[in-house]
Amino acid sequence: MKERITPRKSPLTFQQLFLALHQFWSQQGCLILQSYDTEMGAGTFHPATFLRVLGKNPWRAAYVQACRRPADGRYGENPNRLQHYYQYQVVIKPPPSDIQRCYLDSLAFVGICLSDHDIRFVQDDWESPTLGAWGLGWEVRLDGMEMTQFTYFQEVGGIRLEPVCVELTYGLERIAMYLQGVDNVFDLVWTEGISYREMHHETEVQFSTYHFNRADVEGLRTHFLFCEKEAQGLLAQGLILPAYDYCIKSSHLFNMLDARGVFSLTERAGFVARVRRLARQIAKDALSDPADTAHVP
Amino acid sequence: MSPKSHSIRTRTPAKTAFLEIGVEEIPSDVLPGMLHQISESAKRRLTEADLAYKEIFVYGTPRRLILVISDLASHQPDRIEKHFGPPKTVAFDAEGRPTAAAMGFARVQGVPLSALMVCTAPRGEYLAVQKTCPGQTAIAILSSLFPGILSDLVFVKSMRWSTESGLFIRPIRWGVALYGKEIVPFSYAGVVSGRHTEGHHTLSPTPFRISDFAQYRTQIRKRHVLIDPQERHDRIMSQLSQQTRAIGGVLAMDDALVSQAAYTTEYPTAVVGKFDPEFLRLPTEIIITVMKEHQGYFPIHTPSGPLLPNFITIVNLPRLKNTTIVEGNERVLRARLTDACFYYEDDIKRALETRRPLLKEVIFHEKLGTLWDKTERLVHLCKSFAQGRSDTAMLLRAARLCKCDLPTRMAREFPSLQGTLAGLYGRHDGEPPEVCQAIAEHPLPRFAKDALPATDLGQWLAIIDKIDTIVGCFCAGLIPSGSEDPYALRRHGTGVIQLLAQPALQGIPLSHMIAVAIDAYRIPQKPQNVRDAIHGFMKGRLISWLESQGFRPDFIQAVLVASPLDEHREKEGPVINDPYNALQRLSALRHLSDTPCFTLLLTCIRRATRILPAHFYGTIDASLYREAEERHLDREVSRLEREVTLLCQQRDYIGAFTALASLAEPLDAFFNHVLVVDPDEKIRQNRLALLGRVRDLFAPLADFSKMEQKT
């Protein structure tokens, strides 16, 4: 039985927001995990999503994932764009038939009074060319603002999922900005007395400078080649989990090179295809590994 | 409408059948097509099932597909079936008593011997039995018909959502299926039919019970759902105009946006928001694109033209409780416009021209080189076609710059602004206005009913760009087939035809432009006959465009087969060379076909062409005329030959057809009084020669033998 959801009196702080989501999804039977410790562009890269969605057994997990998008850096000057931000990720396999209702309940749980808002499911067919993954679903909009990506994964790592898996990706900063009624992400209250600015403004300034102006392109290219080779070598030895780490790393290195604007369109497509090849091989090996070392449920 | 109502034997009164399929939000662009498919499939299946009904209605929202069948008969009519048994000779012995074969047949059929009869079949007389099969009940039929309709639906992209589900556009979550007040039992994609539905997803989410369609209809409205897309559409339209009036603005109507709003809501309401007038420093085109493409907002203009710092958005609620929703939308737009300003101001820091070398890195198509190569070809083609123009330099400038916005951030964010942005950036750099306008216009028309470029330079650049793309793709073997047209070549082709059908754009035959464009591609091994393939493709576009303009297909054939007499063009040039001429002749022909003498004229011309042997050519000897009617026809033909030639040269096709219409009566009189196949060979040849002249008179305008006689 679900708890009766009562509206909250004062808006949640940033940390209360993800604590509330932890509480909500924990009640839905989700395993609560931590952010993966390698730089990644989206919570989908977390092994708890990429690897665990592949097999047949049920899986329910929720976690906060710190994400890096080097090209989105704005030196801390843009009120909405960040090169480092937080996603709240929920993966459930197979999707329960009331998952949409459940998701709406989670919004009410964090303090969004559903009947006061215009909540829309806008078609958005999701695709990750680097992970060889695609799915159908929506971006959920709250009064015109994109706040969640709601996707039924159909394929991951080039493998057709059986059963399919639902992925909910909440944009934590946006939801918090809405709840707290602030126009600038840096004005978010992280917790009483601490703002988002204190935690991350300097990160934005320094990393924007690094990604756009300082990153050593040749070094990054070499590093990419090393990661790619390492992943291939580890796969050959059946070390799927470390191989996947190097696949994630190569994807992030690609993102850094891309932010430096060094790719022509064709070269860019070529790099994406190389990461995808790794991801596909890892998914295939993980699924066919007789010892199930990757714990693909 | 009921196809079978006359044959129905009513046992219980007809009732309303009702199907509602609850689905997670269906994409707005496929919903109208799905509703149409449901209606068509229901009609077909009901006819096949021989179940009488009065009318079919389909309704739908993003969350539900609804089918209503009014006055559906409770049963199929009974059917009488005749089963044949052994031949009469085998069934009865010499004394006329039934044999074992006859008794066996009766036993197998489950009827007494007395029910058997003898019927005559094509191969002789046979034993037979007639049985009445009672019709199935509506509920029995509907329980396979409803899931059948769902499985009939065809989607471009479908999905799986659970282990027992099949494929559907989005997950199916409930099904209400009733005949009158009774549940029609079935299951589809893991969902079992019942009588519970939901209202609006946030205002009325608790499931409720349905007794029948009439009760559903009132209850669902109370639960904030307008099931009829037309009602939502009308509500949006009236609210849009109301809200626009309230702020003293003028709405930039956008039918696609209205339809999108109607198909993404269950209860639409128009809401006005505002933005900081400071953003109006951005070019209008950019503001409008930000509003429409990202957010689906309607821009509002002042009565004199410029934008107002306002927008209208359609929310999915019957009314607003407070200002939260407006403020939320304003905040989103503010963020979007801030981003657009960032991109725009960053882009204009460097002149458009300095981005030209970057085009060397942008692939047009892997087999066809980069956009730099494309630009160089455009310049070359412009040079070849613009000889002698006073504004050649401007055309070349426009060709050089028209793709330079592709490597900008704004174009990456808003691909639909390509071209428009280059025009804006060019204007900012101080390029001549004519150049900027031509650049901005060159991607037009972007879709079927889009505007054409307004200026001469824009039109030429648009044609040349499109021809280059078409020719390149054909050279690379990327030819559209069936529903596959990844490079939108059909749209490009139709665009070229539309442009060449403009009165101003005459002078260079399309076949010549195609030939030059083929030569401009420096790629090895162009396919053989690529030119013919492109001509055939363009002819298809011409026909399809003319059909879309409402011309009869047989008229189009008649006009395209005829070869226009024009001394400026090759006599036997490909038909694609003069879309404008084809359009003019078709309009004139349509005009003629509305006049009373058209049927008679058509009959006579067809008769003449039937009698004439193929490729007949003869000379006339006036001394061989015997009848007044042939002399009269000769005089009329001679007069018209001069007149029609002159009118055709002046391209006055209405005049030419009107003149030719006067031939209907002399021709009719000729056929009524003169026997063409005279026994005298010379007289016969002479009469045929006269008819040959009649045929030649019409030949440059239209081939009447292609036209269908309509009564």
Textual characterization of the structure:
The complex is a heterodimer of chains A (about 300) and B (about 700). Chain A is of the alpha+beta class. Chain A folds into two domains: about 15-210, 2-Layer Sandwich (BirA Bifunctional Protein, domain 2), CATH 3.30.930; about 215-290, Methane Monooxygenase Hydroxylase, Chain G, domain 1, CATH 1.20.58. Helix content of chain A is about 40%, strand content about 25%. Chain A has helices at about 15-25, 45-50, 100-110, 170-180, 195-215, 215-235, 240-260, 265-290; strands spanning about 30-35, 60-70, 85-95, 120-125, 125-130, 135-140, 145-155, 160-170, 190, 195. In chain A, strands 1, 2, 3, 4, 5, 6, 7 and 8 form an eight-stranded mixed β-sheet that branches. Chain A is globular. Chain A starts with 13 loop residues before the first helix and ends in a 9-residue tail after the last helix. The mean pLDDT of chain A is about 90. Chain B has about 700 residues and is of the alpha+beta class. Chain B has five domains: about 5-75 and about 135-220, Alpha-Beta Plaits, CATH 3.30.70; about 80-135, no CATH class; about 230-345, no CATH class; about 350-550, Orthogonal Bundle (Hypothetical protein af1432); about 580-705, Isoleucyl-tRNA Synthetase, Domain 1, CATH 1.10.730.10. Helix content of chain B is about 45%, strand content about 15%. Chain B is built from 25 helices and 18 strands. In chain B, strands 2-3-1-7-8 form a five-stranded antiparallel β-sheet, covered by helices on one side. In chain B, a hairpin with a 2-residue loop joins β5 (about 115-120) and β6. The longest helix of chain B has 24 residues, at about 325-345.
